[in-house]
Amino acid sequence: MRKILPESTARSINVNIKSAATTDDNLSHLAFDNVAQANVIIIVSSGKIIMANGAACKLLGYSKKELLTKNRADIFAVEESSFKQMLKQRTADGQSKALVLVIKKTGKSLSCEITSATFTGEHGLEKSITTITDVTQRFLDQKKSDDEKEKVVADNIVIANSKQKAIDIRRDKIVADNITIAKSKQKAIDIKKEKVVADNIITAKSKQKNIDNKKQKIVDDNIIEAQAKSNARLAENNEWIKYIAKSSYDVMWDWDTATGQIYVGDSIEEVFGYKVRNNIMNFTDFCRCLLIEEKEVVENKLLQTIASGSKVWNDNFMFKRRDGSVAATTSRASILRDEEGKAVRLIGAIQDVSSLQALDKKLQEQITIHEEDTEKFLLAAKLSFDVIWDWNLVTNDVFIGEGFEELFGYSIKNNKGNMITDWSDYLHPDDRKIIEQELHETLISCATNWEHAYRVTKANGAIAKVYVRASIIRDAAGKAYRMIGAMQDLSRQKELEEKLDDEIAFNAKQISDYKENFKLIFNASGDVFFDSDLVADVVIISDAYEKEYGYKITDNMTQSADWFSHIHPDDKDAVILDYQKMIASKETYWKSAYRFLRADNSIVDVVGSRVVLRDANGKAYRIIGSLHDVSKQKVLEEKLDHEIKLKEKQITEATEDATEMERSNIGKELHDNINQLLGASRMFLEMAKKGGVNSAMYLSRSSEYTLTAIEEIRKLTKGLTTDVIKNLGLSIAIDNLAIDMATVNPIKICCKLNSFNEKKVTDKFKLNIFRIVQEHLNNILKHAHATKVAINLSQNENFIQLSITDNGVGFDTEKKQNGIGIDNIKSRAASYNGIASFVSQPGKGCVLTVTVPVAA
What we know:
By secondary structure, the chain is of the alpha+beta class. Among the domains are: 11-134, 2-Layer Sandwich (Beta-Lactamase); 250-352, PAS domain (Beta-Lactamase), CATH 3.30.450.20; 386-489, 2-Layer Sandwich (Beta-Lactamase); 526-629, Beta-Lactamase, CATH 3.30.450.20; 729-856, Heat Shock Protein 90, CATH 3.30.565. The protein is built from 25 helices and 28 strands. The longest helix is centred in the first third of the chain and has 112 residues, at 136-247. The chain is flat.
C-alpha cells in the first residue's frame, strides 16, 4: 500500500485562503487532487473531514463541496472510540490499517480497507491522512462459499425438525382440549358478572344526573362572571397593544381570525411604506405583499400552526415594500384560543432585518461557507429584537420584555420590576442625573412622546449605548399615568464590526503560514509531485523522487531533459510524441502510463497525472502533476488474492471441523446419556413384565427414565432447530438462549433488543445472527470466566449492529487464537458484507461488534 499525502490545513481555512492566497499556492494544491488513490484528511479529535482528493469524491459519490461537510462517522461505519484506538496501533512504517464499511452518497455500503497515518498541524492540532481501498469483491466470494456450507447444515436439520414436529402436534392437541374446558367455565362466570355490572350502571347514572344538573347551574353562573371580566381585560389589552405598536421599531399587528381583519401599528408606513387606513387591513392584503415563490409556503405554515394547537407562530420571509423593493423579515406571534382550542386571535410583530443581514454578510464571508446561512439568521435574529417595556406611573411597577436579559444580562423575575429601585440602577452614572431630570420634565409637561439616547451598564460591567422611544398616556386632566416604549441596543453593531476586523487579521496570519505548510505536504507523500516551469525549463520536484527512484536532487530542482532521460528506452519515443501533441493542443489535463528506470536500473510501472496551465493565447507555460508507482499496487493485489484464497481454505477447514465436532458431541450425548437412560428404562420394563408386588413400581421407574430421555433429546435438538426463530422471532430466541445459559451457569446476561425491527430482514439472516450470539456466548462460558454479559442488537437506516460485552479475562487480539469460534463469527458477518471486530485486552473483558448493511 502506498503512502498518502498528509494534510495540515482545515477546509474552513482552505476556503478563506482561496480568495487571498497567491496563484502559486492554488496551483500547488491541484497536485494533491490528482493522486490516483482515494484520500481524505480528518481532524482526529472531532472527526471532521477537511480535505479530500478527486479519487475519494469519485469512490464515495460526493462532490468535493459535499464531502467537506461530512464527518468521519458519516462515511465510516465504525465507532469513534474504535477508530481512534485503530490510529494508535501502527505498523512498522507508521501506518494504521483496518477493514471498515464505507457509506456512499447513495446510501450503498462498500467493504473497504483503510490505511491511516497521523500528523500534527498548526496550533498542535492532530490530524490523520486516510487511504480508502474497495475490497467488496473479496467479501462477495466469501458469501458464496458460506451459502454452500449453510445448505449442508440445513439438510442435517430437516431430520431433527420432522421428529420435533410430531412431538409438537401431540402437545398442541392436549393444550387445545384444556382451552375448550376453560372457555366453557369462563363463559358462565362472565354472564353473571355482566348482569351485576348492568344493574350498578343504572343506579350510578341516576345519581350522576342529579349531580350534573347542580354542577351545570354553578358553571353557567361562573361563565357569565368570567366573560364580563374577560371583556374588560380584553379592552385593556387592546389599548396596551396599540401603544406598543406606535412606539416599537417593529410592525406590531393583531389579527382577528373570525373577521380576517388585522390591526397594524403606525410603523408599517415607516418600515414598509404602506399607509393603512384606520390601521386596519385584511389577511388577503397581507398575503399580496409576499413574494409569489414564497406565498404558498408561508400561508401553509401559518395555517398549519393555527390548526396544530400551538400557542406560538414564527417564520422568516421576504416582504414587498411600497416602492417595489423587497425586505427580509422575521415575524413571530402568540396565538389566543377559545375553550375548544380554536384560534381566535394572533398578536405579534414583523421586523425588517435587511440592513442587519448586509452587515452579517460581511462577517460571514470570513467564516466557512457551509455555516454561512445558519449563522447569518441566528445573528440577525439576536440583534433585531428590542426590549419592550410598560411603566405604570402610579405604582412605579414596570413590565420588561425578555429581550432585557438577552441584551444586558439582567434576570427579571416574572418580567416585573420597580422603576424607582431598579431602572435607575442600570443607567450609567454619568448619564443618570441628566436622564432622570429630562424624563421628569417630560412627564410633568403635556408631551405624549419621549426619545433619548444614553448608556446602560450591563450585568457584566460592560457599557451599552441604547436608544429609547416611548409613548406617554395621560388622563383627561393631562396627567401621565402610563408609559410604554422600546429600547434598542446600539452597541451590538460596533461589536460585529470589531469581530469582523479580528477575523480578517486571523485569516491574514493563516495565509502567511500556508506556504510553509504546503511545502511539508508536498514532500510528505509517497507519490512524486512536480511543478514544471516550461518557460525557465526548471522542474520543482518532491523528496519522493530521490526516496522512491534513487536520483539525487539539489534544492528539490531538476530539468525536463533529466526527467525524460530516465524513461524506459522502449517507451521514450511514444511518451515524448504524446507530450509534444499535448503541448501543441489546447488540453488542460494529460495522463499517461509508461515504464520508468530507477537509479539502480530496476524497472517500475508508473502513471503520470498532470494539469496543464495555459496563457490567454492557449500556450502552455506550466505543468503540475504527480507520478504514481503502480508496481506496488500490483504486488499488493497479488498478495491480497493469495490471502483471500488462504482465508477461504481456513474457513472451509474450520467449518468442516465444526461440523465434525458437532456430530461428535451429538454422538457422545446419545451414547453416554440418552442410551443409558433408555437402557435403564428397558431394564425396569422387563422386570415389570415378570410380575410380582413391585411391578407397578418398576413401570413407574421405567416411565420416569423414558420421560427423562425425551427431555434430554428435546434439549439436544433445541440447539439445532431454527423453528423458534421462525415462530417467535430473533429477539425472543436470544432472550430464551440467555435465560437458559444464566439458569445453569453463574453469569448474568442482560439483553437490549427493542430497537431491532425483524420485519426488514430474512429468516436466514436472523438465523445467522442467532448463531453468532450462540457461538460467542459459548466462547465466553468456556474461556472468559465472565460474571456479566450485555447483548445489544440495534439498527438505523444504513446498518444493523450487534454488540456483546463481557467483563471476563479478555485476550490479546494481536495474538493468533486457538479454535475456530472467532473465525466462524467473522465468516458469518462477511457472508452478508459485514464486519466482525473484537476489542479486548488481557484482564479488561471483551467487546464483539458485528456491523452489517441493512441491504443484507
